[in-house]
């Protein structure tokens, strides 16, 4: 998508300027083009509600039930629905209530502006639901790169809203180009801004001011690594090795290996040569990937070898294995810097270390 940089009134997919108005594409409560000023005015007039008001908890519980039914076959959506179930909301309310005291009054902050990442389809819901439950008004900026899963979630929210009119005026979800004028207008009207993304994204958005009274929460890029003891793996029976491969798949492949908990670096630890164990392990992971029906989009299938070849040029790579599009392994000669841009979808950096102390910086 291109930024809106043309004559007045020129439109793009997500943002348009016409007669001085700033228009954006609204996804919820209703899919339509809207005037941003009108949206902010409407939202500011929404009535305040107490944390865990029944109108909010019943809405979230209903959303949980419907997503649970519609999201079969989508593990991330199923996990989201489970997290929002009524019993979980009761426990969350209890934990929240314990934060209050005679000296501490629990109340909403006001309007929260959420800027979630584009690489995790369900993350925007977690941020929005938590803020909704404690009584805030919410503005969520969503990526224009819609997926089957994100569309399913948005459509389900839209359907659930029909039975919960009290929630309709409390939030909006928008999509627009990387247009600082839009972000600045929303930021000027918020009481909390929540930013997810890489260092450059966070720095760019933080340069846009928020009101003096407003708070800001930032969640920078994070990644995980996994460590397997070579000798311990060699001692596992086949059933336990299969179970380990299943657990690794759940950790690494959900969110296309782009979540904070998704391992992109795998350490084989110990004095023994790990090559035989590693081959056995990856064969079992491939079987789990195949059994779960995991597939890779064409764009990612192209990006994965591109990133691998770039790594071979820029870093010390001693081997590369890619039997198919779902799992590729770069064997590193030294501990790599795996931060920054990453394609995910089953690309792993592998390192052999004598012990875990070897990864501690000097």
Please describe what this structure looks like.
With 362 residues, the chain is an alpha/beta fold. The chain folds into two domains: 15-220, Aldehyde Dehydrogenase, Chain A, domain 1, CATH 3.40.605.10; 225-359, no CATH class. The protein has 13 helices and 13 strands. The strands form two sheets. Strands 1, 2, 3, 4, 5, 6, 7 and 8 form an eight-stranded mixed sheet that branches. The chain has a five-stranded mixed sheet with strand order 9-10-13-12-11, sandwiched between helices. Strand 7, helix 9 (199-206) and strand 8 (215-220) form a beta-alpha-beta unit. Helix 2 (54-70) runs antiparallel to helix 3, helix 2 crosses helix 6 and helix 11 crosses helix 12. The relative contact order is 0.10.
Explain briefly what this protein structure is.
With 362 residues, the protein is an alpha/beta fold.
Question: What would the keywords be for this entry?
Answer:
362 residues; alpha/beta; Aldehyde Dehydrogenase, Chain A, domain 1; 2 domains; eight-stranded mixed β-sheet; five-stranded mixed β-sheet; elongated
């Amino acid at each position: 998508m291109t930024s809106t940089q043309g004559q007045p009134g020129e439109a793009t997919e997500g943002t348009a300027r016409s007669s001085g108005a700033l228009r954006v594409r609204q996804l919820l409560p209703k899919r339509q083009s809207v005037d941003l000023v009108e949206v902010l005015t409407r939202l500011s007039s929404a009535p305040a509600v107490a944390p865990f008001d029944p109108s909010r908890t019943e809405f979230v519980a209903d959303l949980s039930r419907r997503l649970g039914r519609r999201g079969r076959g989508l593990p991330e959506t199923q996990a989201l629905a489970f997290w929002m179930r009524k019993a979980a909301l009761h426990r969350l309310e209890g934990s929240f209530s314990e934060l209050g005291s005679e000296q501490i009054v629990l109340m909403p902050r006001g309007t929260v502006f959420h800027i979630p990442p584009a690489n995790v389809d369900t993350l925007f819901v977690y941020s929005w639901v938590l803020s909704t439950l404690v009584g805030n008004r919410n503005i969520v900026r969503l990526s224009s790169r819609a997926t089957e899963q994100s569309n399913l979630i948005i459509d389900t929210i839209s359907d659930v809203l029909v039975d919960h009119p009290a929630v309709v005026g409390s939030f909006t979800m928008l999509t627009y180009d990387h247009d600082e004028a839009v972000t600045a207008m929303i930021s000027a009207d918020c009481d909390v801004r929540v930013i997810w993304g890489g260092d450059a994204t966070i720095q760019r958005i933080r340069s846009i001011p928020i009101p003096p009274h407003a708070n800001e929460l930032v969640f920078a890029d994070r990644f995980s690594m996994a460590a397997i003891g070579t000798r311990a793996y060699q001692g596992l029976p086949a059933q336990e090795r299969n179970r380990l491969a299943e657990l690794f798949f759940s950790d690494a492949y959900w969110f296309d290996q782009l979540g904070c908990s998704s391992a992109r670096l795998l350490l084989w630890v110990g004095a023994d040569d790990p090559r035989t164990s590693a081959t056995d392990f990856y064969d079992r992971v491939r079987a789990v990937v195949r059994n779960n029906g995991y597939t890779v989009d064409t764009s990612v299938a192209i990006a994965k070898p591109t990133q691998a070849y770039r790594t071979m040029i820029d870093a010390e790579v001693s081997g590369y294995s890619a039997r198919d599009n779902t799992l590729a392994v770069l064997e590193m000669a030294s501990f790599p810097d795996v931060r920054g841009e990453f394609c995910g979808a089953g690309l792993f950096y592998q390192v052999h270390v004598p012990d875990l102390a070897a990864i501690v910086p000097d």
